[in-house]
Structure formats: structure tokens, C-alpha cells
Amino acid sequence: MRSAKIGYLSRLYFMKKRIIITASVFGVLAVIAGAFGAHALAGVLSPQNLQIWHTGVEYQFYHIAALGLLSTLTRYRIKIIFHCYYLFTLGIILFSGSLYLLSCSTLIDISWLQTLGAITPIGGLLLIAGWVTLGIAALKIEYK
After folding, report:
1. Which residues of 1-28 are buried (b: 16+ CB within 10 A; e: fewer)?
2. What is the pLDDT of residue 141?
């Protein structure tokens, strides 16, 4: 029984570590993407495409903060927190990632990139589901 509890706790600590590392990696990438957009892409992309790029960076930062908040909730040991982590992570990749590629589609001249426009709303839905899941997690937490 004791070893099972220790195994469970080590999985929780591993998950907290994973959430923080994921947030850190996404944070580094968001800063790089923001700087790249402001300096390297400013004279190359149209104002509309530059705004699309900026939206990707902005939403990535919002959800990095959400991951940071989520990492503080792992101590409550409820499984839904792990689902929230995966929703936010995949949502960031699909939403912001597709916006980055869409904004540069004319620049890199790959015609099929325009079809990524259908992926952006899926990423957005995953981000929304992450927030809903975070709210449900908060309702399930038993504060002592």
C-alpha cells in the first residue's frame, strides 16, 4: 500500500515538473516568436499577416500563464488536471502554431498552408475546453 502511494506521488511530481517544463519551453518559443515577428517579419509580412502572427504570440502567452496556474493544482491529485494540461498543450500547438504558419504562407510560398485555417478553430476549441476543464477541476478540489 505504501509503495503504491509513493508511486502515485512520484507521478504527481513528474506531472507538475512536466507542466512547468512545457510552460517554460512554450515561454521561450513565445518570446522568440514575438521578437522574430517584431524585428524580422515587420518589413516582410503585410500588416494583416503580422497581426495574425501577433495573435498567435499573444494567445500562446495567455496559455503559458494558464499552465503555470495549473502546475499549482497538481497537489490536489485529481485526474482532470492532467486532461487540462493536454488540452492546453495541444491547443497552443494547433492554435498558435497554425496562426504562425498561416501568417507566413505567402512568404514561404507553400499553397497548401492556407488549408491550416481549418485547424486554428480546433486549437481554439481545445483551449476553451482547457479553461472549462480547469473550472471543473476547481469545483472538484476539496480545500481543507
Report:
1. eeeeeeeeeeebeebbeebbebbeebbe
2. 82
